[in-house]
Amino acid sequence: MKQWYQIFKPELTKTIRLAIPIVIAQLGVVLMGVTDNLFVGRFLGAVPLAGAGLSVSLAFLVSSIGVGGLAVGAALISQANGRGNAAEINQLFRAGLRAAWLFGVVFGLVGAGYAYYYNLFGQTPEVTVIGRNFTLILSLSNLPLFLFIAARQLCDGLAYPRVAMSITLSALLLNAVFNYVLITGAGPFPALGVYGSAVATLLSRIFMAVAVIAYIRRATVFKRYFQPSFRQLSIGSYTRKILRLGLPGGLTFFFEVATFSLAAMMAGWLGANQLAAHQIAINMASTTYMMATGISAAGAIRVGNALGRRNQMAVRRAGVAALVLVTGFMSLCALVFLTGNDWLVSLYLRGNPEVASLAATLVVMAGFFQLSDGVQVVGIGMLRGLSDVNVPTIISLFAYWIIGLPMSYIFGFWLHFDVAGIWMGLLAGLTMAALLLPMRFFRLVRQIRPMDTEERIYTH
């Protein structure tokens, strides 16, 4: 054990240093959704919470392809950094922003379109009205969100994750202030009720996009990547590369997000109380999940950098270090969920014992699938670092839509386990993905040879 620790200690240390700021930044992003739900639940009650929570889930579903697709940028930039190619890093940065504009327009229109047909989701009339209008506002925020994600890939890929962390934490504070003043109408601001929460998200995301791009263009540490001669370099091939690698990666993310969004929809079929309880529990699970995606992103960057140096041993160590870190972290999260479920639910809702009881039960169940959730998302990150995206997409489709969702429906409706049955199916899908994705990574690592090109490795 001591010998193993000595071997992996340098990689664990580097991954932790890289992961902590990314984890904090990811936590800040998801805490914006938590903040929205906290303000809506405390000030407006269970039905607005159900409508807003479902809208956030569905809006995130629509944007997930763009969010997951743009995340490939950090691994590509890390690979280029491993090769010492500053011009390529500039081209990847500009190509990422171009892809973000494309995603922002396309998925913004898609979000507005499904908001128009919100009644087809089979929710109660009150939830439908709230959800339709809430979704329209959130659709506008896709563009600044994508621009922020695309720009932060440069910071993360070059191992400067504190930039995005600082901006995200500032935006989190702004989001809380905006929520309060726009929901309640404090001071000169109008009382927008539940829709004030959506406007708060829009304003916070605009701040994030403007702040990160402005910092990158002004900071001395990034100057070498913005030499005047780089402006003449074409980015068409790099934009296509990001789309070619990013879209399958985005679909991988989509399949998982879609699973949870459809699970929320099924919970709504059972009733508004079940949906509200589901939203509370899934909000907590999403918090730990997004923190695990920070470790996943760090793993992808470390794997990508080692791949750029064609170092098979370093690639393997980077993957193992990420798996060890996420297993330890998610084990602690599971312990908190299992022992503090009632207290955690009380942070969201009071005065509704039926919803609180349901939510407390679901939080316990969420504690059990923390490990699977963490391992599978790190598996995706490790494979992204290898620029392997097609097979993980198939694995995710199988695990979530062939295993997870059908079992959720069977347990929830056929076997009458109610909303708890929906969560049993989710656990099954996550566990399947957690087994298959790391197996894929270690198989690919064995095929790395120092003189191979990236294309020769992954064309099989």
Which keywords apply here?
MATE_MdtK, transmembrane, 460 residues, mainly alpha, disordered C terminus, transport, ion transport
Largest sheet: none
Helix content: over 70%
Rg for CA atoms: 21 Å
Span between termini: 36 Å
Q: Structural class, from helix and strand content?
A: mainly alpha
Name the shape in a single word.
Answer: globular
H-E order: HHHHHHHHHHHHHHHHH
**Could you tell me the mean pLDDT?**
86
Based on DSSP secondary structure assignment, what is the total number of beta strands?
0
Number of domains: 1
Put simply, the count of helices is: 17
What ranges have pLDDT less than 50 throughout 5 or more consecutive residues? 451-460
Task: Give the amount of beta strand, in percent.
Answer: under 5%
Account of the 3D structure:
The protein is an all-alpha fold and 460 residues long. The chain has one domain. Helix content is 84%, strand content 0%. Helix 11 runs antiparallel to helix 14. The longest helix has 43 residues. It is globular, with a radius of gyration of 21 Å. The protein starts with a helix and ends with a helix. One of its GO terms (molecular function) is antiporter activity. It is found in: Cell membrane. It is a multi-pass membrane protein.
Write the layout of secondary structure elements.
Blueprint: H1 2-44, H2 46-70, H3 72-83, H4 86-116, H5 125-140, H6 142-157, H7 162-184, H8 194-218, H9 236-270, H10 272-308, H11 312-339, H12 341-346, H13 353-368, H14 370-385, H15 390-414, H16 418-445, H17 454-458
Helix pairs in contact: 1-2, 1-7, 1-8, 1-10, 1-11, 2-4, 2-5, 2-6, 2-9, 2-10, 3-4, 3-6, 3-10, 4-5, 4-6, 4-9, 5-8, 6-8, 7-8, 9-10, 9-15, 9-16, 10-11, 10-13, 10-14, 11-13, 11-14, 13-16, 14-16, 15-16
